[in-house]
Design a protein that fits this description.
Elements lengths: L4 H8 L3 E4 L9 H8 L3 E4 L5 H9 L3 H17 L17
Parallel strand pairs: 1-2
Length: 94
């Protein structure tokens, strides 16, 4: 469902949009317009205050960045990358 007109106009001209709405508008024309205009969108729909603090407020950013740098280095050196999970069905893309 498209957001109210005022919201659509605001995000269409925003640089960054952090979406905490309970009902997400991820697959709307308003979001498509905003991101096409260069808006960076973080969809955190339905996140409450505790979840927000746990996932954003209490993050060790230097440690997270160092981990990301190491992960990028490992991935760039790899010839093959395999991601597995006992929770996911096995499928492949040819």
């Amino acid at each position: 469902m498209e957001p109210p007109g005022a919201v659509a106009r605001a995000i269409a001209h925003a640089d960054v949009w952090i979406d905490l709405a309970v009902q997400y508008i991820l697959y709307t024309q308003a979001r498509e317009t905003a991101t096409s205009n260069g808006c960076r969108h973080a969809c955190l729909a339905g996140m409450n205050a505790n979840a927000l603090v746990s996932t954003i407020g209490n993050v060790d950013y230097p440690k997270m960045l160092a981990f990301g740098d190491e992960l990028v280095a490992l991935l760039n050196q790899a010839e093959e990358i395999r991601v597995t999970s006992s929770l996911a069905q096995i499928w492949s893309v040819d």
